[in-house]
Amino acid sequence: GMISLGGGLPNASLFPFKSLEFEVDDGKRLSLTESELRDALQYSNTPGMAPMLEFLEGLQEREHEKKKSEDWSVCVTTGSQEALSKAVDMLVGPEDTVLVDDPTYAGTLALMRPIGCNLMGVRCDGEGMVPEDLEKALETCKSNGVRPRVLYTVPTGQNPSGSTASDARKEKIYKI
């Protein structure tokens, strides 16, 4: 006679909403039906809701000419910090060298420092990472027999500086 509350799906008939409608700045109205709203409020599979994943996979196929038969997948996160955490977990290990904007986002430092990687700051100016300083950092790494594992830079609205790189600056960084 015991009812387990340890896990499972809430009874969707108890959700207090029947529909939801939004109006965006341009006057367009978006609405969710009762069925769509129940799906949105309910727990979903860990990777995300199937229709959303299908849409995002289709977008990758169209925009980046990726074929679903290739070895790739979409990863949906709840925000930028979770996405950053997943990328760092996947790419960075102890003693890896990571080149970062100087200054860089405190959340990035909080993720990377406990790993034990070597953070190497690359000076930024009003347009973000300075290409000549990136070249110097790479030369220093090379002379010490180190190959950086990751370059972490935020070219648009960099935090904490607020800088945004011009297209010309981005091209210089990409070429390096």
TrEMBL record:
<keyword id="KW-0663">Pyridoxal phosphate</keyword>
<dbReference type="GO" id="GO:0030170">
    <property type="term" value="F:pyridoxal phosphate binding"/>
</dbReference>
<dbReference type="InterPro" id="IPR015424">
    <property type="entry name" value="PyrdxlP-dep_Trfase"/>
</dbReference>
<dbReference type="InterPro" id="IPR004839">
    <property type="entry name" value="Aminotransferase_I/II_large"/>
</dbReference>
<feature type="domain" description="Aminotransferase class I/classII large">
    <location>
        <begin position="38"/>
        <end position="174"/>
    </location>
</feature>
<keyword id="KW-0808">Transferase</keyword>
<feature type="region of interest" description="Disordered">
    <location>
        <begin position="154"/>
        <end position="176"/>
    </location>
</feature>
<protein>
    <recommendedName>
        <fullName>Aminotransferase class I/classII large domain-containing protein</fullName>
    </recommendedName>
</protein>
<dbReference type="InterPro" id="IPR050859">
    <property type="entry name" value="Class-I_PLP-dep_aminotransf"/>
</dbReference>
<feature type="compositionally biased region" description="Polar residues">
    <location>
        <begin position="155"/>
        <end position="166"/>
    </location>
</feature>
<dbReference type="InterPro" id="IPR015421">
    <property type="entry name" value="PyrdxlP-dep_Trfase_major"/>
</dbReference>
<dbReference type="GO" id="GO:0008483">
    <property type="term" value="F:transaminase activity"/>
</dbReference>
<dbReference type="GO" id="GO:1901605">
    <property type="term" value="P:alpha-amino acid metabolic process"/>
</dbReference>
<keyword id="KW-0032">Aminotransferase</keyword>
<dbReference type="Pfam" id="PF00155">
    <property type="entry name" value="Aminotran_1_2"/>
</dbReference>
<feature type="compositionally biased region" description="Basic and acidic residues">
    <location>
        <begin position="167"/>
        <end position="176"/>
    </location>
</feature>
